[in-house]
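Subject: Interface between my chains keeps coming out wrong

I've been trying for a while to get a sensible model of this assembly. When I model each chain on its own everything looks fine, but I need the whole thing in one frame so I can look at the contacts. Pasting all components below, labels as-is. Any help appreciated, I'm running out of ideas.
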Amino acid sequence: NAGVMQNPRHLVRRRGQEARLRCSPMKGHSHVYWYRQLPEEGLKFMVYLQKENIIDESGMPKERFSAEFPKEGPSILRIQQVVRGDSAAYFCASSEKTGTYYGYTFGSGTRLTVV
Amino acid sequence: QQQVKQSPQSLIVQKGGIPIINCAYENTAFDYFPWYQQFPGKGPALLIAIRPDVSEKKEGRFTISFNKSAKQFSLHIMDSQPGDSATYFCAASMDSNYQLIWGAGTKLIIKP
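Reply #2:
Try treating it as a single job with all components included. I did that and got this:
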């Protein structure tokens, strides 16, 4: 029973390029959450998705960032025209039901470095 | 009011000692308080969680103490081991919400 799979583990992009981060939730989990972690800080909520629906994107910057969770395939977090300030670890979590009570399972993250 | 303040930022304890990590919150609507453990290069993993209707919860060597009136909660690790060296995060959420509000983390080192 594989956990939450994120890839790539490390991603280096030059300023102005696009970054695509992928997340495959645990089997049976239909709720996906993306969090961002800056160095020496806790995680910050970005977006919550269910299959084919964005439920809450209140934590995501309005420009350059987008997320999707298609009917088939992994959830994708897309960052266009990356800047140095986008360098961070991006974590995806999934759950069977919505609500933190039910527990999240986190992936190992994608560490994005913008040079 | 959405913040969770965590201290200390880092902590070094001798093996067998009892590290204590503290968190404080303002929002009285928070009703779920988990602790996560994160090893380098890994994602956070749920360690233990508490609801405000109890003042203490134990799971193995890990104990959460909860003080509702002071709006504080803390993690105690009994008989700490070098393998417990990790970053620990407290968090909070409210009303079966899906968003976790995270503390800034405590980097714990247990010396052999």
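Reply #3:
Confirming on my end. Chain B is about 0% helix and 55% strand.
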